[in-house]
Write a sequence for this structure.
């Protein structure tokens, strides 16, 4: 899968992607990330990408021209790609949408705004507007990284142990179960005995109960469309 990022701060993206799961996926060739500096697509001799807002008001607005030039440059190879504008006004990004992007898009362009946002007319050249949550960031770079990271985790072969993505929060409609590692006893806080029992059936049931309990406590809104077995466990917990 290929990601192309349009930003005025390429180094933010370039630094993050070198590490951990993403870095390994890049090295394995499972994913490709190309970062473009928007300033390379401006015709202004000072490489200016913003200007004052029509109608007045606070802050600066990113001009359409550099985005248009960059998009046309990318599209010149005529390969299909999904163009995503990162914006707090977009469709909310979820694990389900990450899965959809992974399954349906071989290439994505992530367009990062700054300042007060981007000239509205850029929307005529994108496929989707996506928000990573109901809060306002100073720029789209973190949003681009959130999308790249969560989508790459879902690409077969990107994780060392593929099961770890399947067991993650949201994948089955509820949150993950609690995890423990050595030491067995930390200042009197003990690892639950069942995890030391070696009884895999009991461990699986304990984990399912803990996952449902955790979800009921923190995210009851997720508890829809449960299987009859999960419903039975949930009723026991209530
Ligand atoms: N004035 C805009 C508004 O209130 O809708 C916010 C502009 S924000 C300061 C600058 C840029 O950060 C946006 O153009 C967008 O690319 C990015 N951004 C901020 N919050 C975001 C979010 N929740 N999801 C995705 N991108 C976001």
């Amino acid at each position: 899968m290929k990601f192309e990022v349009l930003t005025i701060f390429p180094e933010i993206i370039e630094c993050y992607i070198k590490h951990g799961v993403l870095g390994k996926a890049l090295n394995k060739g499972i994913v490709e990330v190309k970062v473009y500096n928007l300033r390379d697509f401006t015709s202004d001799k000072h490489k200016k990408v913003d200007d004052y807002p029509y109608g007045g008001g606070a802050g600066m607005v990113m001009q359409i021209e550099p985005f248009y030039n960059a998009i046309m440059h990318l599209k010149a190879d005529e390969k299909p790609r999904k163009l995503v504008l990162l914006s707090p006004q977009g469709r909310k990004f979820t694990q389900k949408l990450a899965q959809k992007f992974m399954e349906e898009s071989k290439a994505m362009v992530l367009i990062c705004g700054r300042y007060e946002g981007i000239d509205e007319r850029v929307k005529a050249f994108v496929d989707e507007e996506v928000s990573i949550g109901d809060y306002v960031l100073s720029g789209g770079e973190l949003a681009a990284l959130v999308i790249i990271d969560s989508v790459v985790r879902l690409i077969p072969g990107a994780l060392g142990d593929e099961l770890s993505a399947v067991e993650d929060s949201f994948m089955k409609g509820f949150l993950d179960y609690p995890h423990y590692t050595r030491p067995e006893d930390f200042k009197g806080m003990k690892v639950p005995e069942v995890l030391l029992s070696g009884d895999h059936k009991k461990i699986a049931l304990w984990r399912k109960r803990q996952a449902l309990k955790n979800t009921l406590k923190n995210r009851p809104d997720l508890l829809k469309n449960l299987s009859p077995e999960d419903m039975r466990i949930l009723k026991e917990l209530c």
Q: What stands out?
A: The helical segments are 10-17, 20-28, 64-75, 95-104, 141-154, 163-167, 200-218, 228-237. The two ends are 43 Å apart (CA to CA). The pocket of S-adenosylmethionine is lined by residues 86-89, 112-114, 116-118, 131-133, 135-140, 143 (CB under 6 Å).
